[in-house]
Structure formats: C-alpha cells, structure tokens
Sequence to fold (179 residues):
Amino acid sequence: MSDSQTLVLAGGCFWCTEAVFKQVRGVLDVESGYSNGQATAPSYEQVCTGATGCAEVVKLVYDPGQIGTRQILEIFFLVHDPTQLNRQGHDVGTQYRSGVYFTTAEQADVAHALIREMSQDGLYDGAIVTEVAPLAHYFPAEDYHQDFFERNPTQGYCVATAAPKVAKFRQTFRELVKA
Fold:
C-alpha cells in the first residue's frame, strides 16, 4: 500500500461532501470539520456566525495507489458548484465557500491545473471561485456531525441535498464506488 495522503475540501455543507466521499474507493477516512479560519477549536454555532473565518470541510485520508488527487478533485467539482462565492444553494456565508486545502505541493499543482483546464474548457457558466490554499487550523466537527448522512438518510436536508449529490457521484464515477 502507498503512503496515505490528506486533503481537505470545502464544498458547502460538510454533510453532503462527507456523504459522497465515504463512498469513494481509495478514500480511507473522511471526517467533517472546520479549517482555514482564525478560531481555535470553534463550535458549530461559532462557525455558523461566519465570524471565525472557518469553512465547513471534510478531511480526506486517501491511498494514492488506489485514487489520485485529480480523481478526488474531479469528484469534488462534480458534486458542488465552484462558481458560487461563499454559498452552496441555500447555505450562505463564508463557512460554505468552495476550497481545496492542500497538504503537499503536488496537490496544489493538481488543483490549480484542473481549475485552469475547467476554466479554459468553459465547463461552468461563471468563473470558478474555489480557494486553493495550504491547510491551516483544522479542527474536527462535533460527533453529531460525523457520518450524518449515513445515520440520518431520511432527514429533510439529506434527502433534498445530500442524496442527489451521492447519486450524481455514483452515476458519473461508477468505477470509483466502494464495493
């Protein structure tokens, strides 16, 4: 097995992003959390105010021998709208921004190259506003946020927002769905 790598992604509400990446082959661990803000160990309530500067994120630990950074980012860009500044759908605020928080220079290069390609190809109607920055100040979210979709599949937000993202991933990247 290759040495694992860590990559942190902000794609709006972490429940949705976590729900998708829990199903991706080669992703060894997924944890919802907060990062890239000024607060130390913020609570969900503090992050929701927008005052902490933190984004809702998922921390992915993955095996690059099974899945590459580019594939992870292709999934990420499929399941959220990287053209919405500080929002995803009805979730509004800097905590819902689009972000790629890298832990290696190679991850940063891959993210910048993919964004450049998608922009040149006109893949989206608007400009891609995804922040690409080194991971800073990561804190795990409270226990009740972990595995939220798995534990609450019939909850309204999960049905309306997370489930369609999971279905989109499963249909588009069939070969990357965990057995």
